[in-house]
Amino acid sequence: MIQLQNIFKWYNTANRPTFILKDVSLTIDEGAFLSIMGPSGSGKTTLLNIMGMLDQPSEGSYHFMGQDVFNLKEKQRKELYKQYIGFVFQAYHLLDELTVYENIETPLLYQGVKSAERKAMVGDMLDRFRIVGKKDLFPSQLSGGQQQLVGVVRALISKPKLILADEPTGNLNSTQGEEIMQLFQQLNKEEGVTIVQVTHSEKNAAFGNRIIQLLDGQVQD
To answer: Which of 171, 170, 200 is nearest to 37 (CA)?
Structure first.
């Protein structure tokens, strides 16, 4: 599903490159559940953003579902993203002017899902995560944990083939966090959804079937 080859990412500061990622090569098969660990500043989020087509490397190649991502036009990349990827952001990235219901519904609008079906799908997710009472609130009216939960639900609503999750339980209480990780595991095992999560938690990492360590932008063998 994912093939990253010789990925470098750097920024020029005072005419010298500051490396975020150094020569990362990684293959992730469909149906895998990969946990990426490493200290802060090791390049984990940057690597996830590249996989999610939200960032481009300074050098290297990326093939997703057999397509050479960086040779696609931006519109084609967006279509790939909308069709296959659900992203759980560490900073939530909810749309402030939309209610909880509307935030969750947004990916379905992008996919052209009909109104009645959207209503049923959003209603099901609101029930499943016990947030029906929050559906008409705006992000600013929610706690950090509630915003995180809405971000997770939004990523799952369109039944993506790939879930990219950046510290998905970082702002949740232990019960909510456990539920989310168990849900990820269930989606992975029962529905074959590929999951890549960035986490500092060894407990969360253990839900996956493969763990890699990043240090100073490099994958540690």
So the answer is: 200
Q: Which two tokens stand for residue 180?
A: 């989310």
Dihedral in degrees, nearest 10, Cα atoms 105, 111, 115, 120? -60
Nearest to 155 by CA among 71, 206, 95, 88: 88
What is the domain extent for residue 66? 2-220
Q: What is the mean pLDDT of each run of 10 residues along the chain (221 residues)?
A: 97 91 97 96 96 95 95 92 91 93 95 94 93 96 91 92 94 86 93 96 95 96 67
* Helix H or strand E segment including 147: helix 144-156
CA distance 14 to 98: 41
CA–CA dist 151, 103 (Å, integer): 8
- 9-31 b/e with 16+ CB inside 10 Å = b? bbeeeeeeeeebbbebebebeee
pTM over 0.90: yes
193, 163 contact by CB (below 8 A) = yes
Structural domain count of the chain? 1
Going by C-alpha positions, the residue among 141, 149, 143 that lies closest to residue 165 is 149
Q: Are 35 and 205 in contact (CB under 8 A)?
A: yes
CATH number for the domain harbouring residue 124: 3.40.50.300
Q: Which of 53, 89, 62, 82 is nearest to 198 (CA)?
A: 89
